[in-house]
Amino acid sequence: MLHNRATRWKKAALIGLASALALSVAACASERGQGGEGQVRGGTLTFGSAGDPKMFDATFATDGETFRPVRQMFETLITYKPGTAELAPALATKWEPVDDGKGWKFTLREGVKFHDGTDFNADAVCFNFDRWYNMKGAAAQSQMIYYADVFGGFKNNTSEDFGEPLYAGCEKEDDYTVTIKLTRPSGAFPAAFGLTSLSIGSPTAMKKYNADEVKQSGEAFTYSEYATKHPTGTGPFKLESYDKANGTVTLVRNEDYWGDKAYLDKLIFKTIPEEQARKDELRAGTIDGYDLPSPADYQALEDEGHQVMVRPVFNILYLGINQKNNPKLRDLKVREALEMAINKEQLAKTRLPKGAVARDQFVPQDLPGYTEDVVKREYNPEEAKKVLNGLKVKFYIPTEVTRPYMPDPRSIAKSIISDLKAAGVQVEEVSKPWNGGYLDDVTVNGKHDLHLLGWTGDYGDAGNFIGTFFGRKKAEFGFTNEKIFDALATADHEPDPEKRGELYEQAAVEISKYVPAIPLTSSPPAIVVSKNVQGLVPSPLTDERFVTVSKKQSD
Q1: What is the residue-averaged pLDDT of the chain?
Q2: What parts of the sequence cross the membrane (predicted)?
């Protein structure tokens, strides 16, 4: 049995991530620094976004509509090879573990400048990592979800939800050699160094524009001038303007970029909340592409000459359960019945793209940590009704958003609500814009009972899924289960890949028994661009970079 597990882990690691997650880059577009035949410099490309960005400081970014422009302006120490989850050099040219995994030594790229003309070097790296660790204030820390998930906590935690910090310091050897020291080994690294939230910004700009200034007024958050007007990274594009009234973010080519310069003069992200409106604007030529087209439109868009690029599946949609506010949701039998009430197979077939599948766990099938031993609950509305009849819940539903795992939130929610009502549940619907209250209500303030949310993997590790979701107490789920927390922490600390996979399997089983949330579906998301767009490399991580993109000029 152990041998079979080991064989599967090797296949998952070597084949699943290198092949299943990888697209044929040559077939889709030319990689940066390669090809580029026929591509011309100049012009403006306008991309339709489903919602407004929250701001532009990667530290506080948590959603796709914010990450998309941020990724064009900022860079991380390590990145991912275009079209894959394979690690590749970025601001660091080399990295290696030291001190038995309790540190990572980086050789930094020389000759790199931030957008403000200051130097990127070891001092800048240490400034950023020390900034995150020393972040003060409950408002700021509450917005650093990715950092807290990877590094556990801060020097001075403002919430009991945070744990013992993993970060132990940054040691400069010389201007271009630096070691990030850890209190313990973590299997999240080195891949987690590629997280957009760990992008390296200009220390000079952060000091000048008070980057750490995050304020909360009621349920709303406001950010510094650095985050809203002067984000300063090393990327191939830099911010020219953000017209919030018109929902347009305008980026311009960074002429001093250290690598291959962007083809485009300008890159505009235009907020168009409705998918139909995005499609209409693509057809009219007022935008050049948008993310997550409706599956029903794939063929028509291709017939019209547009390029529909379907990414590999690397995501999960789930129905979140918050145990804090509603005592009945603390009853395991109620949570089990909620899962039995939902027809996942029907949801996958009728509300999601072709190729979507129903899910019974939160770890993708190609990753170590996936196991057939999880508790499986079949759709059984009659049995569910025996437990749920009369249950009242407040169900939060996002608007002004389209996500890879959730192309049409309203349609998906409608199907789930129909199932819940058939099982006797009384549902109060609460709809809010994705970056206009929904994420803060759900992930920070925990005002809901049930909610729709999901995840696209940042890198190929089970911890990036179940560790992110359930590794510590969160307002999103409102539960404390030390058995699950400890199981995930033990798996994360295990450096041996085979043992780590086995430990994540055990954690996945415990999670399936407890039902802190309900896994629903996984689906293959697409991105569409006009026939005039060249060089776009779709990513299984939805980590598209526009530095390689050009636009054919009209005759």
Answers
A1: 91
A2: none
